[in-house]
Amino acid sequence: MSRITLFTDSRLPCPQRLLLTIHELGLEIKHIQEVDISKSEHKRPEFLELNPYGAVPFIRDASYNPPLMLAESRAIARYLARAYGSSDLSASLLPDPNDVVAIAKFEKAASIELTSFDAVANQLELEELFKPSWFNGETNVEKCKQLRTGIDRVVDLLDKRLKHQQFMAGDKLTVVDLFFVPYMHHLDQTVYPTLLDSRPHVRAWWRMMTSRASYKHSFSNLKV
């Protein structure tokens, strides 16, 4: 049993990245505190005292003295994979620390996810999904047209990348694949369900990801 407390809103993509990672690691977290972003609970003084950045997810790992307080979903996922992941390199969610080529491919894939995929998928889903359903906002149709062009371009490049490898960072699953999943889920299910129709290699990767127990656990009962 870990000594981690997880602060999260499991309806949102960034926390979902972390839920996927936790499930893939088989990490048992007893203390999970849901923070309702739609009610601005992440801006309450008692929350900001714990996490001045006012965001979820973040963790408190009491294995250390003082406890480790860590925010940012990707950083937490990397930390958990390193601290609590398998010592078997073939099963690890991180690249072999002694293989500089594997590390380079991993870092490239991580950069693509953050600076190319997330940059457009995040904004497109905010406009078409979260703004109208959570904040009673009006979708900016013209902006969405531009974002759809952007996501088409990125996914075309991912399709070429996955023509030669099974996973985003090479031939084994890593946390980078999990980083892509939440926004891809909302694109596939709601925002842009035809996105993968003409991208066979991304579609094959997506079938692998959605068949995993971590995906089914995290998204089977999800309601936005």
UniProtKB/TrEMBL annotation:
Domain GST N-terminal: 2-88
Keywords assigned by UniProt, alphabetized: Transferase
Entry annotated with the keyword Acyltransferase: no
Enzyme Commission (EC) number: 2.5.1.18
Pfam families (UniProt xref): GST_C, GST_N_2
Enzyme class: transferase
Positions of the GST C-terminal domain: 99-224
Catalytic activity: RX + glutathione = an S-substituted glutathione + a halide anion + H(+)
PANTHER family, per the entry: GLUTATHIONE S-TRANSFERASE RHO
Family that this chain belongs to: Belongs to the GST superfamily.
Name of the protein this chain belongs to: glutathione transferase
Organism of origin: Trichoderma ghanense
Phylogenetic lineage: Eukaryota, Fungi, Dikarya, Ascomycota, Pezizomycotina
